[in-house]
Design goal:
It contains 4 helices and 4 strands. The protein is α+β, with helices and mostly antiparallel strands. Helix 2 packs across helix 4. It starts with 13 loop residues before the first helix and ends with a helix.
Length: 122
Amino acid sequence: MDQTFSADQRLKSKKLIDQLFLEGKSLKSYPLKLIYVPIESAEKPHLKTAVSVPKKLVKTAVQRNRIKRLMREVFRKNKYLVTKDLDTSHAFMFIYISREAITFERMEKCMIKLLEKFSEKN
C-alpha cells in the first residue's frame, strides 16, 4: 500500500485547476468539499490532488496552513480507499468549508466518508 504524497501526485497545473472548477462534480461531508473531474492520462490511473482553505473563512495563515497539513496527511493515509478500484485518472480538490478549527480525528472521519462516497459514484 502506497502511503506517499509526492510531487507527481499533487495538482499544480493551472489548466487542470480551471477545468476542475468549470466541469467538476462535487461531494460534501461537512466540513470538507471534494471537487473532482476525470483527466486524460497515458499512464496508469492515478490521482492529482490539491487542498484549499479559503482566506475568507479562516483568517490567519497559521490556522490555514495547519488545516492544509491535516488535510494532506489524512488524504495520504486514506487514499487507498479510492486508488484500489480506480480505472481512470482524476483530479481532486479538497476545500475546507468551515470557520472552526478541526481535530485530526474529525478530519479523518470526514475525509473517509468523502472518499467512500466518491468510490460509490465511480
